[in-house]
Amino acid sequence: MITIIAAIAENNALGKDNQLIWHLPADLKRFKKVTSNHKVIMGRKTYESLGKPLPNRTNIIITRNTNFKAEGCVIVNSLQEAIEASKEDENPFILGGAEIYKQAIEIADKLDLTFVHHLFEADAFFPKIDTTIWKEISRENFKADDKNKYDYSFVSFKRI
């Protein structure tokens, strides 16, 4: 099963200037819990925004740059190569960015999303979720609190 994991705003915003726009500790904690001990697939720009490999995960980076190196990471040149490199994991996770999500939404089995209930100015967006292809299977709603500035929901979709 291939799972896309992302946090997106009401306008499908993902980020701006290669950075996240918001800070939701609850989402980061859940992300760490869900993806730990799995293979995680991301584009080079997403990796560079993180600054280092995510611990307790095999980091697979997709780049067109054949000279790109990142210590402790697996480097591939396409999403298909990334999927092949993660085949021994029953549930690899695709972490983005926008271009990788656009490709991966065509082949993923599950979407594991955090909806941030706010509009943000952005330059990177998640693809539209086609409800004729994706069925919502779970949702947990949360109100903003002293640590999480915005209302948010954890929502899972499964390919129909």
Q: In CATH, what is the class?
A: Alpha Beta
Poorly predicted sequence stretches spanning 5 or more consecutive residues? none
Order of helices and strands: EEHEHEEHEHEEEE
Share in helix: 10-25%
Please, could you describe this protein's structure?
The chain has 160 residues and is α/β, with parallel strands linked by helices. It has a single domain (3-159), classed as 3-Layer(aba) Sandwich (Dihydrofolate Reductase, subunit A). It contains four helices and ten strands, in the order ββαβαββαβαββββ. It has helices spanning 25-35, 44-50, 79-85, 98-104, and strands at residues 3-9, 13-15, 39-43, 58-62, 73-76, 93-96, 110-116, 124-125, 134-142, 152-159. The strands form two sheets. An eight-stranded mixed beta sheet has the order 5-4-3-6-1-7-10-9, sandwiched between helices. It has a two-stranded antiparallel sheet with strand order 2-8. Strand 3, helix 2 (44-50) and strand 4 form a beta-alpha-beta unit. The protein is globular, with a radius of gyration of 15 Å.
Q: What is the topology?
A:
Blueprint: E1 3-9, E2 13-15, H1 25-35, E3 39-43, H2 44-50, E4 58-62, E5 73-76, H3 79-85, E6 93-96, H4 98-104, E7 110-116, E8 124-125, E9 134-142, E10 152-159
Parallel strand pairs: 1-6, 1-7, 3-4, 3-6, 4-5
Antiparallel strand pairs: 2-8, 7-10, 9-10
Task: List its traits.
160 residues; alpha/beta; Dihydrofolate Reductase, subunit A; eight-stranded mixed β-sheet; 4 helices; 20% helix
Quick structural overview:
20% of the residues lie in helices and 34% in strands. By secondary structure, it is of the alpha/beta class.
